């Protein structure tokens, strides 16, 4: 079971670092590197669901330029929005 979870986290890390635009790649790549290990199964599901969103739209949600639909407005999205790249 742990090996499956590790493989999932590795896949999510890769997807985070290669989303399509440089800004989102840098931001989500750093977030994933610092926080993926601590996310539980439900949070990983929510994170994976966010990665399915088109990159420009996701970036607008992360930077609070647009309000996400309720189904995507999860604690994980709020963690990403509060994430500090410099810290």
Helices and strands, with pairings:
Layout: H1 2-17, H2 22-35, H3 41-51, H4 55-62, H5 75-82
Helix pairs in contact: 1-2, 1-3
State the helical fraction: 55-70%
Query: Which homologous superfamily in CATH is the superfamily?
Result: Flavinator of succinate dehydrogenase
Specify the structural class: mainly alpha
Uncertain runs: none
How would you sum up the global shape? globular
CATH class: Mainly Alpha
Cα radius of gyration in angstroms: 12 Å
Annotated CATH architecture: Orthogonal Bundle
Characterize the main sheet: none
Mean pLDDT across all amino acids: 92
User: Terminal Cα separation, in Å?
Assistant: 32 Å
Order of helices and strands: HHHHH
Protein name: FAD assembly factor SdhE
Keywords: Chaperone
Family: Belongs to the SdhE FAD assembly factor family.
Pfam families: Sdh5 (PF03937)
Describe the structure.
The chain is mainly alpha-helical. The chain has one domain: DNA polymerase, domain 1. Helix content is 66%, strand content 0%. It is built from five helices and no strands. Helix 1 runs antiparallel to helix 2 (22-35) and helix 1 (2-17) runs parallel beside helix 3 (41-51). The chain is globular and about 35 Å long. It starts with a helix and ends in a 5-residue tail after the last helix. The model has no long low-confidence stretch (mean pLDDT 92).
């Amino acid at each position: 079971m742990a090996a499956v979870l590790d493989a999932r986290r590795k896949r999510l890390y890769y997807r985070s670092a290669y989303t399509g635009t440089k800004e989102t790649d840098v931001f989500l790549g750093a977030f994933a590197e610092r926080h993926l290990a601590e996310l539980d199964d439900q949070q990983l599901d929510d994170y994976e669901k966010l990665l399915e969103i088109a990159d420009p739209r996701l970036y607008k949600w992360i930077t609070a330029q647009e309000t996400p639909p309720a189904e995507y407005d999860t604690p994980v999205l709020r963690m990403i929005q509060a994430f500090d790249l410099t810290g």
